[in-house]
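--- STAGE predict ---
source: upstream dedup step, 1 unique chain passed
mode: sequence only
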Amino acid sequence: MENVKLADVAAQFGTPVFAYSKASMLSALAAYQRGFAGRKVQICYAMKANSNLAVLQVFAKAGCGFDIVSGGELARVLAAGGAPEKIIFSGVGKTRAEMKQALELGIACFNVESEAELEVLNEVALSLGQKAPVSLRVNPNVDPKTHPYISTGLKGNKFGVAHESAVQTYKRAAALPGLAVVGIDCHIGSQITEATPYMDAMDRILDLVADIEAAGIPIHHIDFGGGLGIDYNGDTPPAADALWQQLLAKLDERLASPSHVPSLSPNCARHTARWRNNIGRCGRPSV
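--- STAGE serialize ---
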């Protein structure tokens, strides 16, 4: 809704009530789209931000993919009209039944968080006579300079494969007959208000891609996440389009060097956009 007094909404529907601005949501998306102009990129909305079906429909109609962490979220994406081939299945709690359902639907990729998960997914895929497309979520050990409870990219955080173990884990994934390695994934946290952590993470991931490809394992996409913050206390986070112009310039610079990674093209980035705070900004409860 637009141009509506929240007091009138509260009077009609009672409180608490949630009101969402479609224009604000699409404006947040447009900043990413500007940053990726001319690139082959799939922007994915992280459903943990807000799984309201009306919100999901807005992003599905705008061409977004979806980052999910459960079979329930998968069902909601489908109900909202999302395309299975634009779905990324993340998270540490995937069950065999959820893996099977996602494989049968033909989702884009599984973001795998551990070697144990690789083994389970391999078994499920083989039982269906399929190869599961996978990327590994790598912990780049980068300080996002945010609250420790929402930091996900430091060595001490519980998420993902340790940076120093990544190449060996990729070798294991490549050796499993039910898996097809397609990419690499990282997410460094939420409420990030500086560009530096993103730039540091990109450097770490590109270094790792070079090492993985040197081991004979092609990487075809980068799934790069981290939630841009909003202004709570005079914070000045970078605009999404300006941030991604910086990150893509770094990628282009690496690709232009004589030692660049051969299979990683300038158009390969799959950005998993985490809009938890942007959604919150355009739809707060009226009390």
